[in-house]
Write a structure and sequence with these properties.
ADP-ribosylglycohydrolase fold, two-stranded antiparallel sheet, 17 helices, magnesium, hydrolase activity, metal ion binding, Ribosyl_crysJ1_sf
């Protein structure tokens, strides 16, 4: 959604163990009596088939931790792949790069999508299902609004509006009364809620709405709920059709978000002669031609689910379809990557893509610098984590809400 919140390369690969400052901080952030995650597979969805039709030997069904890593690493990969195409038309993308099939820069850079997903994931890991609007509001103040860390770089308009309101002393939900409350800023950070509430789309939707009341309203909330519910369904192996049904089940059927999602999915399910025609059909189904703002939640969520549907849940195809449709491409690809990553697990992410994602640099949220999305996946699935690694010498840690040197 933003433009320059860069993801540091080279720190970890998709399946490696964390050994960096971010993991230590993430583990210690929730130490000391905080409510831990209580997620698990509920009765709202039952495992179905994995969605992608792929050649070669079938992989065993991924376990919950593998799906969690797939969802959040998939988000970060989609974010970084889509960032160069953000706000571009498909014709502009083709003119610059042809069809994007991988990273188009040597130093792949993500955006605020990844850093805000980490922020919300840490908050969710600390409070679990007991998360309240007050918790979220205090965290926004403590980690973002009240810090004197220079310009708020790379952020979307909804975050800027929220911060202005918080700094003026306004509290939630009034803090969400700004001109971009309908943006995809909640949808971009919604995947951790689906990871936490695996198999419980309604709970995922409830929790992401709690998080979103500080910054969003109306369609902005609905967009986040659709994404969180879809990821929650994918986390227990629901096929693409069931993932889409879960997303639609938690938003008003007469909402713009629901209409856009249905139109995109309907277009994506038709048969076309080639990928470009498919992408044009999905895009035409939801994009308002000539409208300048690309961060509309109904549009971005529709494009992401349309890409996921057109690809039949395959990770690579889902993300690249979203990227090559342009518009808010970092967010649409991040959402498509989270859905397909949760469905197929981290092993479905191309190795070279996962290896490019390291701890975030904090280019948008300085307080998140050093965290990795895979740390968040472990925190949200504690029963499947391998246990904390010993802290590296000299690492920083969070103590009493402040960073101090060891």
């Amino acid at each position: 959604m933003g433009q320059i919140a860069q993801v540091a390369a080279g720190g970890r690969t998709g399946g490696g163990r964390p050994g960096d400052e971010g993991r230590v901080e993430a583990m210690e952030l929730i130490a000391g009596g905080a409510d831990g995650p209580q997620g698990g597979v509920g009765a709202e969805d039952t495992p179905a088939r994995t969605g992608a039709d792929v050649s070669g030997p079938a992989r065993p069904a991924p376990v919950r931790g593998e799906r969690a890593r797939g969802a959040l690493l998939g988000l970060a990969v989609g974010d970084a792949l889509g960032a160069p195409a953000e706000n571009l038309r498909p014709s502009e993308i083709r003119r610059r790069w042809g069809r994007i099939e991988g990273f188009v820069s040597e130093d792949p850079a993500g955006t605020d999508d990844t850093e805000y997903a980490i922020f919300s994931g840490l908050l969710l890991a600390r409070h679990g299902s007991a998360l309240t609007v007050s918790h979220v509001e205090r965290a926004w103040h403590h980690w973002i609004a009240d810090l004197d860390e220079g310009p708020f770089r790379g952020a979307g308009f909804s975050e800027r509006g929220t911060l202005e309101n918080l700094r003026r002393g306004l509290a939630a939900p009034i803090s969400a009364q700004h001109r971009h409350a309908w943006s995809d800023g909640l949808a971009m950070r919604a995947a951790p809620f689906g990871v936490y509430a695996a198999g419980r789309p309604s709970e995922a939707a409830r929790l992401v709405a709690v998080d979103g009341r500080v910054s969003h309203d109306g369609e902005g909330i609905y967009g986040g709920q659709a994404v969180a519910a879809g990821v929650a369904a994918a986390m227990v192996g629901a096929g693409p059709a069931s993932v889409i049904a879960a997303a639609l089940s938690v938003v008003p059927m007469d909402s713009w978000t629901a209409r856009s999602l249905r139109r995109a999915v309907s277009a994506a399910r038709r048969s076309y002669s080639d990928r470009l025609t498919t992408e044009r059909a999905v895009r035409s189904a939801v994009v308002i031609g000539g409208y300048p703002w690309t961060d509309l939640a109904p549009e971005a969520v529709g494009l992401a689910f349309g890409a996921f549907t057109a690809a039949r849940g395959d990770f690579r195809a889902s993300v690249l379809t979203a990227v090559n449709m342009g518009r808010d491409a970092d967010t649409t690809a991040a959402v498509a990557g989270a859905l397909a990553g949760a469905l197929n697990g981290a092993s479905a992410i191309p190795r070279e893509w996962g290896a490019a994602i390291g701890p975030v640099r904090g280019s948008c949220l300085p307080s998140m610098r050093g965290y990795h999305v895979l740390d968040i996946a472990e925190l949200l699935t504690p029963d499947e984590a391998d246990g904390p690694a010993p802290p590296p010498s000299g690492a920083a840690r969070l103590t009493g809400g402040q960073r101090v040197a060891r």
